[in-house]
């Protein structure tokens, strides 16, 4: 799959890099999926109703099915008495028709027998079993739910592209659909590289650290709607990385790596993938997240995004580049998280020529949306990152902002 290589003589802009990725990826082909598997995915067909809803006239109340004309005069002073000739419970009814001058006990959801046109709630009666005393009249047709009043056969229930949420899945089940055409969730393989990394729950040496990124990115991939496969830590040994990558390709629609892409001696991802010639590396004018790589690997041209290793850089890169990639593969619009306007609570400065993503807390109160930067600039500050629920996007040409300025914010952890 072709992709325009990242330039080596200048920095790409954030928007260029996002477009490069979106242009090179194609949505995964749709197939029929069991309903619950499709939660959160866009439907890939116009779904029309194969049946009426309700599919038969039925009672909205527990009570008595009647001919309206038989009970029209019922009141406390002049009750109407009718013989009860049967019972209709939802899912177990034998009687198909009712004769005038009689009634049947009927339960909510049970079919209204032919001839009956109204239901008297049990509260307006003495609850009689053989005979019933009715002290209040319904209006004609009251408490009958008519066939087709909700949905008619042939109605378009869901248009192509509609997101399948709980209500839409409930509707599909209501009309008897067990499956629906939707694009599959992309299978995203997450690999952390670095010989200093150790698995949480094991011991640490004096110069090693726990692998935070593979957990953070796998969780972020899952939150974005993907199936995430977290690979254990891969060291900075080129052969080990190469073998681990080859092993993973069989189950990947997209590979995301962290670490090993800057200018060090042991930047294994860059070293191994540059040689392939199908993955390019460059710098994006952003802070954090400057070193980036993108391309395709293996026989099936599996897309790969290589993110920088600093945890904050990795996370921000995921949010800015990988989330749109996942959504593109799922066919889910919009690809990029919409920006929200908010008032800045505290001034800040930003490096010129780079789009800054400032960790922040976003909230809405009586005065509107507001946002407050949290913590410092360092790309290693995971404590601050966990306090943040938003990223303030500071444009490339803005170097300082004052309290009360209006800013654009990516509000994290929100569905869009
Ligand atoms: N001479 C230069 N050095 C660096 C530059 C540069 O332009 N010139 N860029 C810096 C920037 S910006 C970033 S971001 C990092 C990116 O480096 P790598 O992607 O090669 O990442 P590593 O070197 O492997 O790691 C960076 C940092 O992050 C820690 N790390 C890595 N993986 C994990 C993980 N899974 N969990 C937790 N922490 C992780 C790692 O230990 C390092 O401290 O390069 C700068 N250097
Ligand atoms: O760009 Mo690095 O990603 O600053 O930390």
UniProtKB/TrEMBL annotation:
- The protein's name is Molybdopterin molybdenumtransferase
Q: Which domain of life is it from?
A: Bacteria
Requisite cofactors? Mg(2+)
Function, in words:
Catalyzes the insertion of molybdate into adenylated molybdopterin with the concomitant release of AMP.
The entry's family comment says: Belongs to the MoeA family.
Pathway listed for it is: Cofactor biosynthesis; molybdopterin biosynthesis
Annotated MoaB/Mog domain ranges read 189-328
The record's InterPro entries line, in alphabetical order, gives: MoaB/Mog-like_dom_sf (IPR036425), MoaB/Mog_dom (IPR001453), MoeA-like (IPR038987), MoeA_C_domain_IV (IPR005111), MoeA_C_domain_IV_sf (IPR036688), MoeA_linker/N (IPR005110), MoeA_linker/N_sf (IPR036135)
Q: Which reaction does it catalyse?
A: adenylyl-molybdopterin + molybdate = Mo-molybdopterin + AMP + H(+)
What cellular component terms from Gene Ontology apply here?
cytosol
Q: Which GO terms describe its molecular function?
A: metal ion binding; molybdopterin molybdotransferase activity
Q: Pfam families this protein is in?
A: MoCF_biosynth (PF00994), MoeA_C (PF03454), MoeA_N (PF03453)
Q: Magnesium as a keyword?
A: yes
Q: Which UniProt keywords apply?
A: Magnesium, Metal-binding, Molybdenum, Molybdenum cofactor biosynthesis, Transferase
Any idea of its EC number?
2.10.1.1
Query: Which CDD domains does the record cross-reference, listed alphabetically?
Result: MoeA (cd00887)
| Biological process per Gene Ontology, one example term | Mo-molybdopterin cofactor biosynthetic process
Question: Whose protein is this, by species?
Answer: Nocardioides mesophilus
